[in-house]
Amino acid sequence: MTPFGTNLVAVVTPMDPGGALSEPGLASLVDHLLATGCDGLVVGGTTGESPTLTGTEPARLVRAVAARVAGRARVIAGIGTYDTATSIRRAREAEAAGADALLLVCPYYSRPTQAGVVAHCVAVADATSLPVMLYDVPARTGVAFEVPTLLELAGHPRIQAVKDAKGDLFEAMTVMAGTSLAYYCGIDELNLPYLAAGARGVVSVVGNVFADRNAALIHAVRDGDLGTARAIQASLLPLAAAIMRTSQGAIMAKAALAQRGIIPHATVRLPLLESPPHHLERLREALADGDAGGDLAEVGPAAVAVAALP
């Protein structure tokens, strides 16, 4: 595996009805993800409701997941904030808690210059011995990693990958061609084109429920079987629409997991709210359609290899 894995999932944070972290729910979710071919778990990222995690909660999550995984997959800790000192502290706490790597988002809200973005990322990368995946999501942060910035940061020995949720495939290919940075698609709807263009893997929200399909998609692209890859991606698009384009990814992913009985509750923390009935009905329909049309045995031989990605 790479230092990060290949079939990564942006893991939700299970909570009980009162909003406290649910370690039984987390254990059940981790077991489900490992059983369905996930080899990298991103803990405490945006889908994990990172803005609402406080105090010792981020490190508790990493520690619980690392203990449950027990070396069977990579554990990537989301540690980025808009404050460099806080990000450094969370990075060190994640390393002590057993993380294998770090996910570092571009500083948000304060809108730093690109020189400030570089200084922030270098300071965090210098603070631990862990490999770093940059997270480029300007729709959330207000500031993107520009190409010259990525080219400069690629020279740091621990900055090794990019989770791209920008959606500019030409820019991604430009950086891949000019650096050794491993790219990971962070937009479920675009997994196939990113993989076909050379991305190393995916960081998926839909993978909370269907990591096996993503694993099959990755294998199909690696094997050059684009017909199978297109069939798998087609089976995932209605699910991606229901989870990512109905309201908000963490809300809908938790609802899907609760509907499947993988976690006991779909609780989210304010300012997020649980799904209203009409959203849940759309989700139920997409899950049912996905089950009916997504038999991996029918879309080609590459689709059966859903675990232990090399």
- Secondary structure class reads alpha/beta
Q: Could you give the order of strands across the largest sheet?
A: 1-2-3-4-5-6-7-8
The whole-angstrom Rg is: 18 Å
Helix percentage = 40-55%
Low-confidence stretches: 297-310
Can you lay out the helices and strands and say which pair or pack?
Elements: E1 7-10, H1 23-35, E2 40-43, H2 57-69, E3 74-78, H3 84-97, E4 101-105, H4 114-125, E5 132-136, H5 138-141, H6 147-153, E6 159-164, H7 169-178, E7 182-185, H8 191-196, E8 201-204, H9 207-222, H10 226-244, H11 249-259, H12 277-293
Parallel strand pairs: 1-2, 1-8, 2-3, 3-4, 4-5, 5-6, 6-7, 7-8
Q: What's a quick, concise take on this entry?
A:
By secondary structure, this protein is of the alpha/beta class. Helices cover 46% and strands 12% of the residues. Strand 3, helix 3 and strand 4 (101-105) form a beta-alpha-beta unit.
